[in-house]
């Protein structure tokens, strides 16, 4: 599942109540200097709300958000910064939790690798959504049927005012579960993934696609290259495999790893970097140097930093002082 390092929703306050997890997004754009968002109308409830929906079995929250928004708006999107979620009791006595992200329309050219890696878009059903509307944010606040839905909108407006809304993602992945050193009799750089590790690599694909990853950078060592290979195949991206992201080269020259991370922060392209546990302190140090204080304070600080197959999504905004990490999420993709 996906969760921000600072939980947007917190634990449910209703003990023993069945929980329904759902996810969606606030799709935004700028027109003539005005911030606009997209609302959908659901005929079943006769309400105007944000596009969202329930998770499918084995689906990560962020993957569900990208899928549901695309299905209900009819256009693929790319997830941005996480927004405050909502939780409430349904008339049946269940707890409904809705997780939201800011989102932008995907570009067929710039986001082609991520779109290629996704499942085909299902056409929206008019039984679920019969109208869609782009509105200035003040008009959207007035149009929303539920007052609680204005909470994520207010956070979106604040992020836009602070220059934290237009972002690209730099995703840090620790390679999947590998054979133990004791069980492997080859070289360290050739130590392979276990079957679980291969499943973790496959589980990364829809998550990376949801964040619009177009650039792939990885340690050349087998366990990293194999972890990222499913996304490379699905997206048809051309990976950059590097020896200096391996454990031995990092020990000799951590500055080259730091330079690679800085390049990804500056690039403006959503990217993924796959590396090893001993390399993560250098990676996280660079992220911390380019982070807002509130973000730097919640970056992983204890070994092992990330578990095998886990990823950290850093949302990066361009500022006058250079790239700034304005939000982070830690994700454990579901593996079956």
Automatic annotation (TrEMBL):
MF GO annotations: hydrolase activity
Keyword field contains Hydrolase: yes
Pfam families listed in its UniProt record: His_Phos_1, NUDIX
Superkingdom assignment: Bacteria
The entry's keywords: Hydrolase
Protein name: NUDIX hydrolase
Domain Nudix hydrolase: 18-158
Tagged with keyword Manganese: no
